[in-house]
Amino acid sequence: MSDFFEKVSSQVDPFKKLVSYIPGFSGYVERQNRRDADKLLRETVARRFEELWGRTSQLQADMVGAGQISYVDDMEKAALALRTFIDKISTAARGYSGMFDAVKINEKELEAIYQFDAAFFDLGDQVKSALDNVEASMGDEAALPAAIRNITTLARLAVETFERRSEVVTGSR
After folding, report:
1. Among 46, 67, 101, 166, which is disulfide-ready with 97 (CB 3.0 to 4.6 Å)?
2. What separation in angstroms does the CA of 40 have from each of 25, 32, 48, 157?
3. What is the rounded CA–CA span in Å between residue 88 and residue 80?
4. How far apart are the C-alpha atoms of 64 and 55, rounded to whole Å?
5. Are 34 and 5 in contact (CB under 8 A)?
6. 3 state SS of 94
């Protein structure tokens, strides 16, 4: 995750570099870079989950095509939870507050936010595996319901994890 911060930090324009010599301003620039890094990281997570959501929708279409219409509603629950997560993480407040923001986030809270964000990448891998399992179970009437429940559980876990992340950002935990 530090690569995101380093990527943003390396793109500091000469003006910001010059002004960073002003006492107190360098901390503000660093906070702004961290906010930009947080936004970049969340956009990356959202893109990965966007791909997974697309695959979920495709599996629903495959179920219809295979005559397994009774499972489409169950897959829709997973798709809705993934869409909810994508929407929430895409529109979330940046993870590091600005100089005059009402909510101040310190290094400790920022580290916790980054830990949540790393968990999203792990959850993305788990969702991908769960979708692989749904796809492999398409012809197996006994295994398909459990595979769909697993993807739904993971999608809901992503939303719940995001809610916990929001508590760190707002300081309401």
Report:
1. 101
2. 22, 12, 13, 22
3. 12
4. 14
5. yes
6. coil
Which two three-digit tokens encode residue 112? 């916790």
Tokens of 119: 């968990």
User: Which tens digit of pLDDT belongs to each residue from 95-108?
Assistant: 544 444 545 666 77
The SS3 assignment for 110 reads helix
Structure tokens belonging to residue 173: 């935990």
pTM over 0.85: no
Amino acid found at 114: Y
Torsion angle of the four alpha carbons 127, 133, 139, 143, in this order, in degrees rounded to the nearest 10: -100
Contact (CB, 8 A) for 5 and 40: no
> Quick one: pLDDT band at residue 2, thresholds 50, 70, 90?
low
End-to-end CA distance of the chain: 23
The 8-class DSSP code of residue 106 comes to -
Residue position matching structure tokens 């707002």? 170
* Tokens representing residue 63 in the block: 């179920």
**Are 31 and 99 contacting, i.e. CB atoms less than 8 angstroms apart?**
yes
Rounded to whole angstroms, the Cα distance separating 119 from 152 reads 17
Is the pLDDT at 69 greater than 70? The verdict is yes
CA distance 149 to 155: 10
| R_g over Cα of the chain | 20
Task: Give phi and psi for 145, each to the nearest 5.
Answer: -60, -40
